[in-house]
Amino acid sequence: SCRPCGRPELIPEINSDKKQLCFEWGPGEMLVCETLFGSTEGKEKRPDCPYVYVVRKDLDIYSQTLRKLFNESHGIFVGLQKDEKEKLGKSRTAQLVRVSKNYRSVIRASMEDSHQLASNVCFPQVSTLSAMELIWNLCEIMFIEAAPAGSLLRHLLDWVRLHVCDVDNMLCDVLRSESPAKHKNFWDAPSNTQTLTEMELKWQHWHEACERFLKDGTFASNPHMETLCKILVGDESAILEKKDLMTNWYHFLVTRLLYCHPTVKHVELHLYAQSSMDLFLGAESSPEPLDIILLAAFELDIHQVIKECSIALSNWWFVAHLTDLLDHCNLLQSHNLYFGSNMREYLLLEYASGLFSHHSLWQLAVDYFDHCPEFGRAYLEHHIERIPLDTEHKALKILRICEQRMMTEQVRSICKIMAMKAVRNNRLGSALSWSIRAKDAAFATLISDRFLKEYCERGSFSDLDLIDNLGPSMLLSDRLTFLGKYREFHRMYGEKRFCAAAKLLLTLMTARIAPCSFWMTLLTDALPLLEQKEVIFSAEQTYELMKCLEDVMAAESKNQKLQEDDAETMKVEMLRIGLARNLARAIVKEGTLEES
């Protein structure tokens, strides 16, 4: 897989002499390249038809162990974002430290899972997870907790003991020697035998002495010593001005003052960083990515830590979550990227985009996009349209996500796709349901016509529950309205509400919302009502039915359909007889009523 930093991967069998077929990373998070691979089935290959090699991005998301890491850390991330009433001062710092420790516990749990798998394939993951926990722990100490001098040193010692198993043995060897200060490993194992109170007292005494020397002008004749005193009392302008001079005094100061920590952390931290790197990797080792990252952390260079981690680690999980946490510590506000988004949002977007290429982890990515205020919605809209809609259950899940976020266009697109799939599978009820949800009048009309055609062929409707409960949705299109009302006519007829059924049937015919091909069917439906013992249609209604029949005959005579179809001719004759008989009965009944 390609690393998030964009390092190139060697594509097997690439032919550099020929023009290659290549595509950049897309929503599917894959790259396609032309290769010279032979056919695995032993078939001959034409020269003009190259083989294709697929390179997937962010392969870590397919690792079982790392999937667990992604899932569990998601809850921690969301919980941190939902804490709107952020506390201030020490309580806020303690809260963020707890969140950091939760992240580290998830990393360590994933490390244990990788160890239990006892597979060679997992060794690289164990190494990566171990490095991630090491770096995160140091960042927690240096940036998030940011303890004062004495506590900071003790935290750093605990960090070394936790991650370097030989520290305790080394410390014992130093303390057992006749002259511990002259032991070769003295500086590789600092001791915290002094209490915090002792350290604070020594520091305070030293600090007051420096302030007194500056006030009295003791070192007025020695600019170098005067500058050092300014540095040790925390004069930032002196620190920046004499940064090179400070380097020459590092070892001298630590030797004279043992572990007294000055206000300016830069002095002690750089020396501690040097000794820690020698301890981890040997004094003569060339800088490795881990060295660079840890040194950047000791030098309090947050952005360099994030940059180097992005290059060295194989996925975006670490930098995305660490940067988000540091942002909540108000340590990244001043760093915006040149193309608009800040560093936190950029890294979260990259991480979430990778999750979207996985068949189930994409659900986690939605929450990450939700908490990217500038570009999160645009990314979500872009990616969610490209999720394969394999099942109706998955489609409904995606639809709920879109509806909750008022993503109207995406809702319509998903519904249209699912409606088309249902039509292809001849599932008209499902297709109609999706088209109504999409508010697609044209497609609803198309499916309604399919229902009417099916009725003409079979004499009955399928999916009656859906049609019976269309409600206000039937107003989406005229044809859907006709379908719903026509089904209502059948229901009335079945309940022997003949007068109401006759009135509705006549309304459907005169409103002209039925397809022309269905007019004869409506007239045929009137025949049983015309033959009832009780007069159902009034004389006026019968005249309207007669007019409808003449309109149908006029339309069909142009197509010469009646002359070619004996069944249709028989229907017309029966309708004429029925209408004439009903008209006579209606006139007699209405005349009798008037006389009485």
UniProtKB/TrEMBL annotation:
Function summary: Functions as a component of the nuclear pore complex (NPC).
Location of this chain's protein in the cell: Nucleus, Nuclear pore complex
The keyword Transmembrane appears for this protein: no
Protein's name in the database: Nuclear pore complex protein Nup85
Subunit structure: Component of the nuclear pore complex (NPC).
GO cellular component, one term: nuclear membrane
InterPro entries referenced in this protein's UniProt entry, alphabetically: Nucleoporin_Nup85
GO molecular function, one term: structural constituent of nuclear pore
Transport in keyword set: yes
GO annotation terms (biological process): mRNA export from nucleus; positive regulation of DNA-templated transcription; protein import into nucleus
Principal subcellular localization: nucleus
Keywords: Membrane, mRNA transport, Nuclear pore complex, Nucleus, Protein transport, Translocation, Transport
Similarity remark: Belongs to the nucleoporin Nup85 family.
Organism this protein belongs to: Podarcis muralis (Wall lizard)
